[in-house]
Amino acid sequence: KALIFDVRNNPGGYKHELVKLLDDLLPEGPLFRSEFYTGQVTVDKSDANFLDMPMVVLVNGDSYSAAEFFAAALQEYEAGVVVGEKTVGKGYFQTTYSLSDGSAVSLSIGKYFTPNGISLAETGVTPDLIVTVDEETAAGIYYGLLDRSEDPQLQAAVNLLK
Fold first, then answer.
1. Distance, CA of 151 to CA of 134 (rounded, Å)
2. pTM above 0.85, yes or no
3. pLDDT (tens digit per residue) in 38-49
């Protein structure tokens, strides 16, 4: 009947997985834009098939990268409501190079943009419904120790879907 996606404390993930999921959820149109510092631009697009049902995305200050872009895409398409606290604002992508001593270095090689062409770098996603939690509640959410009925962000999402 409805979906709640919880991307709180989510460090992100792979672009191709994000695009695959968004393609299933959103109607035809742009999903995600990548701009390499070399000037190369790629735009991932959705086909016309999509899931038409109420959706809410839970976010917080520890929702990074692909998690933020997931929330932003649903918000921009008005396909879902974003609930929680402002995200961190990571809009760059990296590549990792292994070094001969076994260590590695990651270098930023480009910038990501939402379907509407907005960079989240240093701005993040502002929820449609801001629901803040104190440090103790945030720790309970992070460690999975908080009963669902005591999670004010989750309860706000459930109430939106009623």
1. 11
2. yes
3. 999 999 999 999
